[in-house]
Amino acid sequence: MSKARAxxxxxxxxxxxxxxxxxxxxxxxxxxxANSFKSRNAIFREPLALPTPETFSLIGxxxxxxxxxxxxxxxxxxxxxxxxxxxxLLFGAMAAFALSEYRFxxxxxxxxxxxxxxxxxxxxxxxAILQGMVATGLVNTLTALILVYTAQGLPLAVFILSExxxxxxxxxxxxxxxxxxxxxxxxxxxxxxxxxxxMATVAxxxxxxxxxxxxxxxxxxxxxxxxxxxxGSQIFIGQFVTNWNAVLSALSLAIFPVLILYVIFSxxxxxxxxxxxxx
Amino acid sequence: xxxxxLKSIRKAFGGHEVLKGIDLEVKDGEFVIFxxxxxxxxxxxxxxxxxxxxxxxxxxxxxxxxxGHVAPAKRxxxxxxxxxxxxxxxxxxxxxxxxxKQAGAPKKEIDEKVAKAAGMLSLxxxxxxxxxxxxxxxxxxxxxxxxxVREPKLFLFDEPLSNxxxxxxxxxxxxxxxxxxxxxxxxxxxxxDQVEAMTLADKIVVLNAGRVEQVGSPMExxxxxxxxxxAGFIGSPQMNFIEGGRLGDAQAKTIGIRPEHIGLSRESxxxxxxxxxxxxxGADTIVYLDTEEVGTITVRLFGEHRYAEDDIVYATPVIGxxxxxxxxxxVINSGQ
Lengths: 279, 336
What we know:
The structure holds two protein chains of two kinds. By secondary structure, chain A is mostly helical. Chain A is 75% helix and 0% strand. Chain A has 14 helices and no strands. Chain A is globular, with a radius of gyration of 23 Å. By secondary structure, chain B is α+β, with helices and mostly antiparallel strands. Chain B has eight helices and 18 strands. In chain B, the strands form four sheets. Chain B has a six-stranded mixed β-sheet, sandwiched between helices. In chain B, strands 13-17-14-15-16 form a five-stranded antiparallel β-sheet, with no helix packed on it. A four-stranded antiparallel β-sheet of chain B has the order 2-1-4-5, with helices on one face. In chain B, a hairpin with a 2-residue loop joins β1 (4-13) and β2 (16-26). The chains are: A mainly alpha, B alpha+beta. The A-B interface holds A 169, 171-172, 174-181, 189-190, 193-194 and B 47, 50-52, 71-74, 77-79, 81-89, 98-99, 102-103, 146, 150, 158.
């Protein structure tokens, strides 16, 4: 207690730094949301001002909802993100379990191979991916995006999860074997619940790049029916004229689904990040 | 209902051989303890019996049936682990019943067996709790209960008391001894603690570097160690080893005398020496002596004695307390 009081200055300093960082990080978000409720003139005259009764306008949201099928875009983004996360977690955890649990020739090499994707950006393979998708007739389908994002998310998932799975007690798995659990039951019923914090970490790290990606939707699925939110908002950004009301409104709307997913995972995530530090 | 036969079991990890040909026979109802320093292969041997590791060569037979390729769950064994290894998301009752449930036993039978095992271990008040809500001793009792419920041919214990504090260790040790008497089951127990080994075992198997050094009852190992390793490993404080030449014994390379087989006197005796350190334990007094004839030796006296550092004393070995070992460290004629 006395120690905590003695370091009051230090605590205050830490808080000031963290609050400053929070303000800097939240400022663009605040600006986006505030300006999305303003008229076009007000955005340019006073970009930093809050909407007042005179400048308040929903024109951006009206444009967004009128032009194009935004609800459809949201649906596409959500489907792609959720299915990709599910596949990344399932396959990533299975690969991680095999790497951490079984002794086989080339185990370390296989682990390195699976983690290689962390270091090599998947976009380098865009042309080949596009050719592959054209050949298999998957262009302009959500499946194409899901496949690419699953591949993109797996390396990090395997890397993080296999480290975590090594910490699960061998005795526990062996007890399960003696009690007659199959390897699948050991994986799903004993190991997965214990690495849940790590799964949440992986889910968040996987989710954000997928949600905000513009590259692959633009190349692999630009059709109206398969557009994602990020791609859909691009129609308001022109070479000469940009409809800022609409762009800001679209971006404001796009924040919310990912925010909800984040809140779902965050409780687990914080445990996942601190687990290593506390032990 | 549970005998075990091991025939030239070998186990290698990569190029490193951990078990170098183990032969062993365990009779029905015996309490056998594997003891040895860390890294001697005792846990690996237990895991091989359980089927958690496959032997590189050799055969494991339980009740006369070869089980080399039988899954752990089908071998009729139950195992208690050092880290308890309870399922964290299941209640005590479900933890204990899971093995039977997996084997497809009817619910009524599981309930009966769990209740019976819980009664034996006084675990009834805790059946609805989860492992996280139990103390270390309670968790280990649940782990033992989980083994009992399965009614195995063989109980396997992998250092079950190592994670418990000293007082609990003694209690749980008594509990295991009582359990062995009432169940009359065959038990195989791994430990590095020689007190556990001496107090619990019908038969001790001393392992060192992947080989069996000696098999025998606790008193056989204490009174007639087959070699220098066993002589040094069993007994605390450790046996004194003296070069044979110093005592004028041309045949024996090493002569061993247990600290409790040496008498001390202030007036006269065989070896004159100076006290370098004394440990007063109440029931025992341990005296470390620096002698001219035999170097530094340890003497264990029963009761309290008022020796102090730098006292000059005379040590005399008890007749029949000498163990003579040849140049291969094997016993020549133990106990003379």
